Amino acid sequence: MIVSKLVQSQIAKGSLEKGLLYNLIQFTRLLTFIIIVFIFISFLNSNWYTAAVSLGLISLLLGFALQTPIASLIG
Predict the structure, then answer these.
(1) Using N-to-C axis directions, what is the helix angle for 18-44 and 2-13, rounded to 10°?
(2) Could you tell me which InterPro entries the record lists for this protein (predicted)?
(3) Torsion of CA 67, 71, 73, 75, to 10 degrees
(4) Residue 25: which residues within 8 A CB-CB, separation 6 or more?
(5) How distant, in Å, are the alpha carbons of 14, 21, 42, 63 from that of 46?
(6) Each residue of 5-20: b (16+ CB within 10 Å) or e?
(7) How far apart are CA 72 and CA 32, in angstroms?
(8) Whole-angstrom Cα distance, residue 30 to residue 36?
(9) pLDDT (0 to 100) of residue 75
(10) What secondary structure does DSSP assign to 25-47, as a single string?
(11) Burial of residue 27, with CB atoms counted within 10 A of its CB: 0-12 exposed, 13-18 middle, 19 or more buried
């Protein structure tokens, strides 16, 4: 979390457009969240491969389940 805050402060110091600045900060927050989740999962599971496969299967099932609702929103 400290590294994330340092990166965000360095991004905020830059002279970028507000939209790009907002997107970069949100991206760093997303990466931080993903890393924290993976660390948490690694404490729960001693085997990384099992955790990765289970997350992949869950995301695959969610992708198929939400395919029609998302397509109806877009089109």
Answers:
(1) 170
(2) MscS_channel_TM-2
(3) 180
(4) 8, 11, 12
(5) 41, 38, 6, 27
(6) eebbeebeeeeeeeee
(7) 32
(8) 10
(9) 58
(10) HHHHHHHHHHHHHHHHHHHH-S-
(11) exposed
Q: Which amino acid is at 1?
A: M
Q: What is the mean pLDDT of residues 29-57?
A: 79
Nearest Cα residue to 61 out of 71, 53, 73: 53
Q: Indicate the residue type of 8.
A: Q
Q: What residue spans define the domains of the chain?
A: 1-44, 47-75
In angstroms, rounded to a whole number, what is the distance separating the alpha carbons of residues 14 and 71?
A: 38
The angle at the Cα of 29, spanning 19 to 42, to the nearest 5 degrees, equals 155
